[in-house]
Write a structure and sequence with these properties.
Blueprint: E1 3-4, E2 7-8, H1 20-30, E3 34-37, H2 58-78, E4 84-90, H3 96-109, E5 113-116, E6 120-121, E7 124-125, H4 130-139, H5 144-162, E8 166-167, E9 182-183, E10 186-187, H6 198-213, E11 216-220, H7 235-243, E12 247-251, E13 254-255, H8 264-273, E14 279-284, E15 290-295, H9 303-306
Parallel strand pairs: 1-3, 2-13, 3-4, 4-5, 5-8, 8-11, 11-12
Antiparallel strand pairs: 6-7, 9-10, 14-15
Helix pairs in contact: 5-6
Length: about 325
């Protein structure tokens, strides 16, 4: 215990650092029992490359993904018996074609699972920077509710088409709109805070759909790195998931060995506050199939104390 099914490396992701093997070694050192490797599916259009990929072509991303799968398979064999390694990918939904490309990629490489994530709204990057986020807000004339509605409609398209096993940072649309955020001294309104708002109902619609096909929702500690109050999903939506019997797991969304178990002390506090002591995780059977297992009394596991993750306060700071 524990685990993370949302992990990247600098070897195959330009905005991460270090090797994939270093990530796995760090996970073993921390006492993890399972990890899911989830490098991004390649983007097929030149206009979707990020600035750090300016020297690359879409074909380079495809080549890198093939190399990632080969390396992940090598590492799974090398560390067999020390940690269970699942090989997956994190999705993109830039255009409708992106979903078909992800589906084909999964089948071709026989991936164990998908992390279903949405990083774009109307082909514009959502989480790259404050400026890119603000550009989307501007496109919607400053109407954040309209922007949030679009996000959850696109997310539903992704869920329906791919049915990913793990739902990645469910409310990423809040990344540069955290609780208490202010602009020019004026408090911004979070379109999701009103339990009766149309935006909230769209989020609940997606939650119910994902629960219906058996998805697991990650509680993603990387949100604290972005200044949000809670891990993804924020507590209002996490409560909606839990009240409907949704299954949850934990992840660090690590971008290198230095991020493995990042903020897991604070995460323990968040789990306590939300009265969560049962976590779900993916595991491979001896035959190579993937199944969902349950970890009971998750917070009572010695992992937390062994790593100094003893915080019960979400205000605690640790990297």
């Amino acid at each position: 215990m524990p685990f993370s099914f949302h992990m990247h490396s600098g070897q195959f992701c330009r905005h991460a650092s270090g090797s994939l093997e270093a990530v796995i070694q760090a996970a073993i050192d921390k006492g993890m029992i399972a990890v899911g490797l989830s490098e991004h599916v390649p983007r097929s259009r030149a206009q979707d490359l990020y600035p750090e990929e300016s020297d690359m072509a879409p074909s380079d991303l495809s080549t890198a993904f093939a190399e990632y799968v080969t390396e992940a398979q090598r590492l799974r064999a090398k560390y067999s018996g020390q940690i269970d390694i699942l090989i997956g990918a994190e999705t993109e939904h830039i255009t409708a074609a992106s979903l078909q490309e992800a589906k084909q990629l999964r089948a071709y490489y026989q991936l164990d699972y998908l992390v279903g994530s949405l990083h774009h709204i109307d082909e514009m990057p959502l989480d790259f920077s404050q400026a890119s986020y603000d550009a989307i807000v501007l496109k919607y004339g400053g109407d954040r509710a309209a922007m949030f509605r679009r996000y959850f409609d696109l997310q539903l398209d992704l869920l329906r088409e791919l049915q990913p096993e793990v739902i990645g940072h469910f409310d990423l649309v809040r990344i540069f709109h955290p609780y208490g955020n202010t602009t020019a001294g004026l408090a911004e309104i979070d379109p999701l805070e009103d339990a009766f708002s149309e935006v909230r109902q769209l989020a609940v619609r997606n939650i119910e759909y994902a629960i219906g096909y058996g998805a697991i929702f990650e509680i993603n500690s990387r949100a604290w790195k972005k200044g949000l109050r809670d891990a993804y999903p924020q507590r209002d939506l996490l409560a909606e998931i839990l009240s409907r019997g949704g299954r949850v797991t934990i992840s660090d969304d690590s971008h290198g060995a230095q991020d493995v178990c990042m903020f897991y002390g604070r995460l323990a506090g968040y789990l306590r506050e939300m009265d969560i002591d049962r976590l779900h995780y993916l595991a491979r059977t001896p035959e190579g199939a993937v199944e969902v297992r349950v970890l009971e009394d998750a917070l009572g596991h010695g992992f937390w104390a062994a790593n100094g993750f003893v915080s019960v306060s979400v205000s605690a700071e640790e990297e």
